Automatic annotation (TrEMBL):
Protein name: Dihydrolipoamide acetyltransferase component of pyruvate dehydrogenase complex
Organism: Candidatus Brocadia fulgida
Cofactor: (R)-lipoate
Family the UniProt entry places it in: Belongs to the 2-oxoacid dehydrogenase family.
Superkingdom to which the source organism belongs: Bacteria
Pfam families according to UniProt: 2-oxoacid_dh, Biotin_lipoyl, E3_binding
An annotated GO cellular component: cytoplasm
Subunit structure, interactors included: Forms a 24-polypeptide structural core with octahedral symmetry.
Annotated ranges, domain Peripheral subunit-binding (PSBD): 122-159
Length: 424
């Protein structure tokens, strides 16, 4: 019995999706819930699971095709199994055959073939091509993808780890055109969507950026004092981003104009504070959202950020986890950048850019001291607010971070302590 695979609607405002990669081929045998295709929308990148076990009968559209939601993109011929009977309906058109002792050896052989096919279909076309070009035995590589699937990064890491190997350089990607003086690289669906959104934002919002310098010395001391304990007791890797997210969420409560959107009829202030955290992927960015960020303490925010960043990179986010953001933070300091001028994520009215924390000499009480310093840059929509509003908001964040209370982390917490960030 044929079962359709459709382009799902990944959110109320999503009208279309792009097929970025097929994980199976026509004729492959698959299991229910096995990832069969990767899709990309303006909200999320994710893997679509098989609705039933069976054989891939038809793939209707190629990779790179953008289609409306609810479009049938593939068809699976169901494979039913019941005690004493094996039915492989569709691929060969045969009727179910009773399993008897005489057929035991044949059934065993078929299962071996199926297991071999199962291993083979776990590899994407790109992975198989890289393995062939680099003469790599994929069985020797431990995969980091869904269900242990081997990824391109796994192959590159494996090649780099070989004795005497230099940095592995992958061959030109499919679709690249190499000329004498240049290389043409086609746009990936995610890059095309990102480009469209950024151009729309710059054309729509009146972008202005203001920058504040923040003394992070107390935050650095708190982190150094408590990061090992939090790793041991909470299983989180404590970075600077949760501190900044907490200070920002609390500042948004005091400056609600920053937590708003623009409409031609007026300004819409949001009653909830949902902070989006920009996460860098191989082919672009995605912004998962921490809901009600102002109601969470440092530990919970650290857990949430670690969780959503990890699942964003493994394409495990749910559609609702990239929706309803009211303010965004982008941490380019992770790559060593000191400050930048980020582009507003519409329909929001501002975005906070976080620079690297670096030690440098500064003047403190008319004396030169070595302090851990950081730049915060705020791009805001000048249609909604003026520079004074933006500067007041950044000043509130700066004061909270610079007054952070340096205290030891407690193993047991009956309620959110005031010690997580000084006086709030």
């Amino acid at each position: 019995m044929p079962v359709d695979v459709i382009m799902p609607q990944m959110g109320e405002s999503v009208a279309e999706g792009t097929i970025t990669r097929w994980l199976v081929h026509e004729g492959d045998r698959i299991e229910k819930e096995q990832p069969i295709v990767e899709i990309s929308t303006d909200k999320i990148d994710t893997e679509i699971p098989a609705p039933t076990s069976g054989i891939v009968k038809k793939i209707y559209y190629p990779e790179g095709k953008t289609l409306p939601v609810q479009t049938v993109i593939a068809q699976i011929e169901a494979v039913e199994t019941r005690e004493g009977v094996i039915s492989a309906v569709g691929a060969n058109g045969r009727s179910p055959l009773p399993v008897t002792a005489k057929k035991a050896e044949a059934v065993t052989a078929v299962k071996e073939i199926e297991r071999a096919a199962e291993r083979e279909k776990r590899y994407s076309p790109l992975v198989r091509r890289l393995a062939k070009e680099y003469a790599v035995n994929l069985e020797e590589i431990k995969g980091s993808g869904e269900g242990g699937r081997v990824t391109k990064k796994d192959i590159m890491d494996y090649l780099s780890s070989r004795p005497g190997a230099g940095s592995a350089v992958p061959p030109a990607e499919t679709g690249q055109k190499i000329y004498e003086k240049e290389i043409f690289i086609p746009l990936s669906p995610k890059r095309k969507i990102t480009a469209d959104r950024m151009v729309q934002s710059k054309r729509t919002a009146a972008h202005v950026t203001t920058v504040f310098e923040v003394d992070m010395t107390k935050v650095v001391k708190y982190r150094d004092l408590n990061k090992d304990g939090m790793t041991r007791e909470e299983e989180i890797h404590l970075t600077y981003l949760p501190f900044i997210t907490l200070a920002t969420a609390r500042a948004l409560k005091e400056h609600p104009l920053m937590n708003a959107s623009w409409k031609e009829e007026g300004i819409v202030q949001k009653n909830t504070i949902n902070v989006g955290i920009a996460v860098s992927l191989e082919d672009g960015l995605i912004v998962p959202v921490i809901k009600d960020a102002d109601k969470k303490d440092l530990v919970q925010l650290a857990k949430d950020i670690q969780d959503i960043a990890g699942r964003a990179r493994t394409k495990k986010l749910k559609p609702e986890e990239v929706q309803e953001g009211t303010f965004t933070i982008t941490n380019y300091g992770l790559n060593g950048s000191l400050f930048g001028t980020p582009v507003i994520l519409l329909p929001q009215v501002a975005i906070l850019g976080v620079g690297a924390v670096v030690k440098r000499p500064v003047v403190v009480d008319d004396a030169i001291a070595i302090r851990s310093m950081m730049y915060l840059s705020l791009s805001f929509d000048h249609r909604v607010m003026d520079g004074a509003n933006a500067d007041a908001f950044l000043r509130t964040i700066k004061e909270r971070l610079e007054k952070w209370e340096v205290s030891a982390y407690g193993a047991k917490r009956s309620s959110p302590p005031t010690g997580y960030g000084g006086v709030w």
